[in-house]
Design goal:
Chain lengths: 445, 313
């Protein structure tokens, strides 16, 4: 009999523990939990501070919110996709605008239109910012930060080379002329850097190729008949720019093929005055601030910038004189969230004028709301570059087409193909990826 | 009657009787269980899952992300028709041959033999520095070598300039050679350690006896050392070929597989199709082929070892 009593005791204890745990779970449900994903470092500190402020705000309203943060520093999109495919996607996540079509296709992102319609704040986002997060007639995110690309230059190098300052080029010829003067008069300096090759990844496509391609009036994806334009005069012009830049020794090919070319060209090169000019995302301006990560002590004296000109005035897309390529990040809600109200509150909080300004100040980039305060640099950008802003094609095949663009620039850079040959190879490769029926070739004069 | 009673032959719990022998087996199993569960959860199930996924069209994004379907052998037929796959396989074989066989094995073996007969100081310095290359993290090794092979200011080119030679474009003109060198530098220590231990285990009396019989150093090496460490040689081969075949980090960070795919080993190819093109099904098919090759290599080696064992008995 003794042993059965012991067994009963055990069963009793086990039941009590289970019950206690169960009660604990029930009690804990007063706390609302929100899972948030965003790319970590170098954004981590700023975003975490904003999240803390959100939690505090809710606490003051008598609601305990626990935010579970997922902030990978590498491979953010891969991580996000894997989380979704494993069924553990976040409630709210930060998303790059060009990534939206993929997420929509995966059915993991929730359209926000009816929520946005009832939100007073939405009217403070300019049309371009509203359209950036739209795909197939629905809006999927609230953009909180945007960027553009401009031509940064070292004023001290250009002055030494004999280029008249301020440098305000209106055509590619003027850029080449200035680069040639640097090459001749300041021989230790690499005259210019336009991103090329596969190591730089997407940077090559958006910061490099597209800034040239749009300046020659190019369109990569024709939305009227859903085809990829794989050969065009504009593409040949863009590739020819690379051919001339590397062929005339106006840049250096080798560092593009070494690990982390951005460290060589930007973090060190432009910061130390070893690179004369570079077409780069505006965010570097903040990195170059005296107290920034790539700090230049006397930044405002030695570093300057100009909008990137079209090939010639009026040659750009929409007959523009200048070009800017835009990207941006927004907050989006997962389609599987069972915490919709809190998620939407969070997105609104993170998209307030103050939050957006705090982010731009802490991380860089341009605020997306007209009522968010910003600095003089961003105001000039908004006035001089954002009117000429265009975007990459929103299409699920884009990443693979983009890789082919990077390969084409790599071939030209290494001297293994002329601009025309590289374009032919590019066209063949894209045809193989998307199918012959989805490509077209424009006549080259 | 007590609940548990133990006597010399068996253990009695309630109405069950377990013999001592059975009990021992059982306890062995219980002790192995956690390790086996871990292997099951982190090796066997993922591998089986990858094989399953390789027959589907699962993608990381798009409609096929959530609702993927069975596509039979499609991924494999596509894979075998893909020139880039064959390219990566060829490069992997060259990489393994150059890095594992010519490099790590021969150099590591030679170092072990030389260090055995050298003085304590040189042993410490050489052995220590080789070992250092092995213990530092992969990515740090990449940064070290990136700065050595850097075109503008890398020490390799500085040395060439000092010798009156031209700068070399290491990562552009000889990318495969560069990553082979880095991997040799990093992996040699393992072979060296393995053989140092094996050489220590060869009884000294055998050499003394051979010396009495008038054997020279080469004869001692081929007649005594080599036969006695055959097993270690095989083991080393298995470990370094499989390890080198699966190398990813060094190549990915160093050259990204480039330029234009000229250093794209199979690991980098798999990463590209699975994560950059986001075709998990297709990438899994390539991984399965890699797994099969690794298993085949392992089987060949194991076969040799088994011959060794049966001979030894």
């Amino acid at each position: 009999m003794v042993r059965y009593t012991r067994l009963l005791k055990l069963v009793f204890c086990f039941t009590m523990i289970t019950l206690a745990l169960g009660l604990g779970v029930v009690a804990a449900q007063d706390t609302q939990t929100l899972t948030v994903s965003f790319p970590g470092d170098p954004r981590s500190e700023t975003v975490n501070a904003l999240i803390d402020a959100f939690v505090e705000m809710k606490a003051e309203a008598g609601v305990t919110v626990e935010v579970v943060i997922n902030e990978p520093t590498e491979g953010y999109t891969d991580q996000l996709l894997l989380d979704f495919s494993a069924g553990v996607g976040p409630d709210v996540f930060s998303v790059s605008a060009d990534f939206l079509p993929d997420l929509v296709g995966s059915e993991v992102i929730r359209p926000l239109d009816e929520l946005l319609g009832a939100w007073a704040g939405w009217a403070n986002f300019p049309q371009g910012m509203q359209e950036m997060s739209a795909y197939n007639d629905a809006t999927y995110a609230v953009m909180y930060n945007t960027d553009t690309r401009v031509l940064f230059y070292r004023a001290d190098v250009l002055e030494q080379a004999g280029v008249e300052l301020p440098f305000e080029p209106t055509s590619w010829e003027e850029i080449f002329a200035a680069a040639e003067m640097i090459r001749q008069n300041v021989p230790d300096v690499i005259p210019m850097e336009v991103q090329a090759g596969t190591i730089w990844g997407e940077g090559t496509t958006i910061d490099g190729f597209f800034m040239l391609f749009r300046g020659a009036g190019g369109t990569l994806f024709d939305t009227s008949d859903n085809t990829w334009i794989v050969e065009s005069p504009a593409m040949l012009d863009a590739f020819s720019f690379y051919e001339r830049m590397f062929g005339d020794d106006l840049s250096a090919a080798e560092p593009f093929m070494e690990p982390e070319p951005w460290v060589f060209f930007l973090q060190e090169g432009l910061a130390n005055g070893d690179v004369g000019m570079a077409v780069v995302v505006n965010v570097v301006w903040g990195l170059y601030a005296p107290d920034g990560a790539w700090g230049i002590e006397n930044r405002d004296e030695v570093l300057s910038w100009a909008p990137m000109p079209a090939r010639e005035p009026g040659a750009g897309i929409n007959n523009w004189d200048f070009v800017g390529m835009g990207g941006g990040w927004g907050w989006a809600m997962s389609s599987t969230t069972d915490n919709e109200d809190l998620a939407w509150e969070f997105i609104q909080f993170m998209s307030s004028p103050d939050s957006i300004a705090t982010y731009a100040e802490g991380v860089g980039g341009i605020p997306t709301r007209v009522d968010a305060p910003t600095d003089a640099f961003n105001e000039t950008l908004a006035a001089e570059v954002l009117p000429f802003q265009s975007f990459r094609p929103a299409h699920p095949d884009y990443p693979r087409v983009s890789e082919q663009i990077q390969i084409a620039t790599e071939r030209i850079m290494l001297g293994e193909a002329t601009a025309a040959e590289a374009m032919t190879l590019f066209a063949e490769a894209v045809e193989a990826i998307v199918g012959a029926e989805n490509v077209k070739r424009l006549p080259i004069e | 009657m007590a609940a548990i009673r133990v006597d010399a032959q068996a253990i009695h719990v309630l109405n069950w009787t377990i013999t001592r022998r059975r009990w021992n087996e059982l306890s062995l199993l219980v002790f192995m269980l956690p390790a086996m569960l871990l292997v099951l959860a982190f090796v066997i199930i993922p591998a089986a899952w990858a094989i399953y996924i390789s027959f589907t069209n699962q993608a990381l994004i798009g409609p096929n992300a959530q609702n993927f379907s069975f596509v039979g052998l499609e991924n494999y037929t596509r894979l075998f028709a893909d020139d880039e796959f064959w390219n990566s396989l060829t490069i992997s074989f060259i990489f393994v041959f150059g890095s594992a066989f010519l490099g790590q094995f021969l150099i590591g073996f030679a170092l072990a033999v030389l260090l055995k007969s050298s003085g304590l100081l040189s042993r410490g310095i050489v052995g220590g520095s080789v070992l250092l290359a092995w213990v530092i993290p992969e990515i740090v090794a990449v940064y070290i070598w990136a700065s050595v092979l850097n075109f503008q200011s890398g020490s390799a080119n500085q040395i060439l300039l000092l010798l009156g030679l031209e700068r070399q474009r290491w990562l552009i003109d000889t990318p495969l050679l560069s990553i082979i060198l880095v991997n040799i530098w990093r992996g040699t220590a393992f072979t060296m350690l393995l053989f140092s231990a094996a050489l220590e285990a060869v009884p000294k009396v055998l050499y003394d006896a051979a010396a009495v019989d008038g054997a020279n150093a080469w004869q001692k090496f081929t007649r005594i050392t080599l036969p006695l460490i055959r097993y270690t040689i095989l083991l080393d081969f298995i470990l370094i070929t499989m390890g080198t075949f699966s190398v990813f980090g060094i190549v990915f960070a160093m050259t990204g597989g480039g330029p234009l795919g000229r250093s794209e080993v199979i690991g980098v190819y798999i990463y590209r199709v699975a994560f950059e093109y986001r075709e998990i099904g297709f990438g899994s098919a390539a991984s399965v082929v890699m797994l099969v090759i690794n298993l085949a290599l392992a089987l060949v080696y194991l076969r040799f070892i088994r011959v060794e064992w049966s001979e030894a008995r």
